[in-house]
Amino acid sequence: CLHFTWSSRGPVPLDGLGLTTVTTAAEAEFLLAHGTECVNGPGGSDASDATRAAGATDTSLAAMRVMLAEAAARHLPLVVANPDIVTVGGGGLLPMPGTLARWYREMGGEVLLMGKPAAVIYQRVMAMTGVGPGEAIAVGDSLEHDIAGAGGAGCQSIFVCGGIHAEELGMCGREGLDSIASPGSDRISALAKDFGAFPEYAVPVFRW
User: Which residue in 49, 91, 98, 134 has the fewest CB atoms around it within 10 Å?
Assistant: First the structure.
């Protein structure tokens, strides 16, 4: 597989999966997206994560888009292990594998999402903890993924406003958590309606 992963955030381990990794779409049988910073190094089915990481190449989003176009022309499936579009980073919003999925769909490629908002994620957690939908509550900052997924699984949810939707909600910077105020129910409701995802509760930030 052609594996898109992380470099500065740490590579995602593939040990034990029996996968052979390649570095071009021409060599691949399918694509796997865990990150958006680099292309994992080559390695046979018995290669270690350390061996692959040593050959990993930092890759721009523009270069990844070219690889996606090459893969789409070959009708290769793209497996996306984290469908989030963006996440909150130290300097703002960072693109996530869901961005690659969106591009690939636009190119006519086949995309297999293996994460929220798929109900199986919530069902698996509930099975592990021995609770039902009426006893579970999901917490997240993505209306499209966290909150919509919780609703689809029959769970209540808490929307963290100061995450990826902070700018859309007119919230200030993410420094000084004690001073961040709620954007107000009207703004939250309007944005929730845009995404068709309706949380039962909302908080400015999530702390523990």
Answer: 91
What whole-number distance in Å separates Cα of residue 5 and Cα of residue 192?
Answer: 31
Q: If you count them, how many residues does the chain have?
A: 208
Give the integer Cα–Cα distance in Å for 148 and 207: 22
Beta strands in 117-189 (DSSP E): 137-140, 156-160
- Are the C-beta atoms of residues 155 and 132 closer than 8 Å to each other? no
- DSSP β-bridge partners for residue 203: 160
Q: Using CA atoms, how far apart are residues 85 and 101, in angstroms rounded to an integer? A: 9
- C-alpha dihedral, 106 to 111 to 114 to 116, nearest 10°: 30
**Cα–Cα distance for residue pair 86/88, rounded to 1 Å:** 7
Q: Could you read off the pLDDT of 13-31 as tens digits, one per residue?
A: 998 899 999 999 999 999 9
Residue range 98-124: mean pLDDT, rounded? 92
State the burial class of residue 10 (Cβ atoms within 10 Å of its Cβ: 0-12, 13-18, 19+).
Answer: exposed
Task: Please list the alpha-helical segments (H only) found in the chain.
Answer: 49-54, 61-73, 97-106, 119-129, 148-152, 185-195
The per-residue DSSP string of 29-50 comes to S-EEES-SSEEPPPB-TT--HH
Task: Give Rg (Cα) of the chain.
Answer: 19
Residue owning tokens 């109900």: 119
Q: What angle do CA 117, 118, 122 make, to 5 degrees?
A: 90
